[in-house]
UniProtKB/TrEMBL annotation:
One function term, GO molecular function aspect: carbohydrate binding
Protein's UniProt name: Galectin
Domain Galectin: 1-137
InterPro entries per the UniProt record, alphabetical: ConA-like_dom_sf, Galectin-like, Galectin_CRD
Organism, scientific name: Pseudolycoriella hygida
One Pfam short name: Gal-bind_lectin
Record lineage: Eukaryota, Metazoa, Ecdysozoa, Arthropoda, Hexapoda
């Protein structure tokens, strides 16, 4: 079930998403975005600073961004697939230059800011993922309805 969280990110912030991969999962997606929209596919005018997509069964994760001109260039990183029933911790550490991403303590690379950090207002979690908890700098977040 898609979930949306209001956030404010600054350099030094750490966002943690504890989740579980459901049965027959294809992909689990996480957007750091401007605005409270809940679109699986971005619409004209949407801004996504970081689209992080775990592609189950392909041993890869994809990082990208979306602005007025559409999707940017994908960055694909090899990463062992998560299996149905697996629990995971997705951790996004914010620096002045990039987002540094880890899954279960294993680094999957940094993603350079392509959209100004101050434009990020929401975390949108969607596709095949069960969210157990989300925290920002150790503070538990509640979904926006």
């Amino acid at each position: 079930m898609p979930e949306l969280y209001g956030i404010t990110l600054t350099p030094g912030a750490t966002l943690q998403i504890h989740g579980t991969v459901p049965e027959e999962a294809d992909r689990s997606s996480f957007n750091l975005q401007y605005g409270p929209y809940k679109n699986d596919e971005p619409a004209e005018g949407d801004t996504i600073a970081l689209h992080f997509d775990i592609r189950h069964g392909t041993d890869s994760v994809v990082k990208n961004h979306f602005e007025v001109d559409g999707w940017g260039e994908e960055e694909v990183t090899d990463f062992p697939s998560l299996n149905p029933g697996d629990s995971f911790l997705l951790e996004i550490k914010v620096t002045a230059e990039s987002y540094s991403v880890q899954i279960n303590g294993v680094g999957v690379g940094a993603f350079q800011h392509r959209v100004p950090l101050e434009e990020v207002t929401h975390l949108f979690v969607f596709h095949d993922v069960t969210v157990n908890s989300v925290s920002l700098n150790g503070q538990q977040l509640t979904p926006v309805h």
